[in-house]
Amino acid sequence: MLNKSNNRTFLFVVMCIVILMTHSLSAQLKREGLIFSEVYLNRNEPAKSWIEIYNPTNTKLTLEKFRSSNVLTTNILPQEINDKGGIEITPGESIILCADKTKFNFSSNAKIKQVSDMSCFGKGGFFSMKTKEMGEEGADIFRYGNPEATLSLGDRLGNFVVPFSTDSISYSRMIGNIPGERFQTNFIKTEPTPGSYNSKGGQNE
Length: 205
Fold this sequence. Notes:
The chain has helices at about 1-30, 80-85, 155, 195-200; strands at about 35-40, 50-55, 60-70, 85-90, 95-100, 110-115, 125-130, 140-145, 170-175, 185-190. By secondary structure, the protein is an alpha+beta fold. The protein has 2 domains: about 1-30; about 30-200, Immunoglobulin-like. The strands form 2 sheets. Strands 6-5-2-1-9-10 form a 6-stranded mixed sheet, with no helix packed on it. Strands 4-3-7-8 form a 4-stranded antiparallel sheet, with no helix packed on it. Strand 7 and strand 8 (about 140-145) form a beta hairpin. The radius of gyration is 20 Å and the shape is globular. It starts with a helix and ends in a 5-residue tail after the last helix. The relative contact order is 0.20.
């Protein structure tokens, strides 16, 4: 009788722990805001690098801050963009941030903004951004290059690290289809289509 009682208590405790862990995980994964949707980081020719940012919501959003871990500032957006309060992105729209407009050689109808500090890679690191008037749920981040360079972020972001691009290969984010849930930082190798993430669609998680 005592053993059965102990077993029930143990099972109850385990169930409580599982529920708490699941709730905590759901809270961490739920988010709204802009996302990094396609990445082309060319370490051999950094000036050719670019990153696509996509608005998956039904609301106009503003990219307020954009950061590289290899530049000692929390915002590498050009001053003229900061003076305007950021870059507005309409629902379903993508914009392109590139290291050098003159080296951007892909066809795109998206807005293209030059961010020269994007070319500062090191052996690896992370890029992050913040959606205006949102807290952590409006932040997005991905690791790239050498995994050791961002090992401390592994617990929060997972093990996936975007490789440096070679030739014309880019990396597109895999997307989920549950509104309000976080778009995981997993990317797949693709042919570059900057500015077309909405029609390209990625793949379900």
